Amino acid sequence: MNLAAIREDVAVIDILLRDIAQRPVDLTDPDWPAKLSARLPPVEEAGVVAEASAALTALLDAYESGDEGVRGEVRQIFRAHGAFSWGVGLTGRWPSAAAEFRRRLVHISARDQSEDPRDELVGIWELCAQARGRGVDVEPIVRAVADISGEVDHVGMGSTRLLILRGLEHR
Fold first, then answer.
1. Angle formed by the axes of helices 3-21 and 68-80, to 10°?
2. Confidence check: pLDDT of 84 > 90
3. Entry pTM
4. Do 115 and 31 share a structural domain?
5. Of 119, 57, 120, 58, which is closest to residue 92 (Cα–Cα)?
6. Could you say which of 52, 78, 87, 100 is the most buried, measured as most Cβ atoms within 10 Å of its Cβ?
């Protein structure tokens, strides 16, 4: 695992996604939701699907298998590269609903909060509800991922660890 090389790849992808991430949305246009949903996913528009997927996989693998120092570095990479963090998501197939739930929760943990942790919290609640609906025993996975999550309260809503644990609130 070479986080320096991954960081370089993420930096390049971040630059390629930045204009897309910062593109204004005209909220006065009554058709803005349809226009927004008609756009290609950011990584497709930028032509970096394979590269972004590989970088995200490498970051999440390092995050899950690394010690706290490695996890801190991965969190810093996501925080330093906002367009990458915003525009690169998980795709593909998992061996089980539980494995998919865990990986998606690890992705949230590694991003260590977005600009608006309220969105993150709603996403955690939705993810937990979907997993429960698919028969996943959510609690042990939430607790395990919370244990590797960041403890810094970036904007006054609690740490990522606490936000993830709040996934247990809704049953």
1. 30
2. yes
3. 0.92
4. no
5. 57
6. 52
- Domain hosting residue 116, numbered range: 93-171
C-alpha of 60 from chain center = 10
Which residues, other chains included, contact 74 with Cβ-Cβ below 8 Å and sequence gap of 6+? 3, 59, 62, 63, 66, 110
168 plus 116 within the same structural domain = yes
Residue 105 — very low, low, confident or very high, per pLDDT cuts 50/70/90? very high
| Degrees to nearest 5, angle at CA 146 with 143 and 148 | 120
pLDDT of residue 86: 93
Show the tokens assigned to 16: 């390629």
Burial label, 74 (beta-carbon count in 10 A; 0-12, 13-18, 19+): buried
Amino acid at 136: V
d(CA 38, CA 83): 20
- At a CB cut-off of 8 Å and minimum separation 6, what does 76 contact? none
Are 37 and 61 part of one and the same domain?
yes
